[in-house]
Amino acid sequence: MRLLGLIILALTLLLGVSFAILNAQTVVVNYYLGTKALPLSVLLVGIFIIGIVIGFVVSLPSIIRLKLKIRRQRKGQG
């Protein structure tokens, strides 16, 4: 099982490196406080990470509510 995990990790890293090489063009990002020139791959990965964080923050209240509900139900049984 550990070997399978290492193979998946190696394939993911290889895919990420090839993605970065294929998307090495520089793009200019204009935002409210200025501009920044970044490689396209860095910009895409950054936006992906920001999306993951926003998704986690938005789902956090539901996760906490469900965990509290489970805790209350387990207290009632014991």
Specify the overall morphology: flat
Q: Count helical runs.
A: 2
Return the average pLDDT rounded to an integer.
91
Q: Portion of residues in helices?
A: over 70%
Strand content: 15-25%
Structural class: alpha+beta
Describe the structure.
It is a single chain. With about 80 residues, the protein is of the alpha+beta class. It has one domain. Helices cover about 75% and strands about 15% of the residues. It is built from 2 helices and 2 strands. A two-stranded antiparallel ribbon has the order 1-2. A hairpin with a 2-residue loop joins β1 and β2. The radius of gyration is 20 Å and the shape is flat.
Provide a brief overview of the structure:
This protein is an alpha+beta fold and 78 residues long.
Secondary-structure blueprint:
Layout: H1 2-22, E1 26-31, E2 34-39, H2 40-77
Antiparallel strand pairs: 1-2
What distinguishing features does this structure have?
2 helices; two-stranded antiparallel ribbon; 78 residues; single chain; alpha+beta; 2 strands
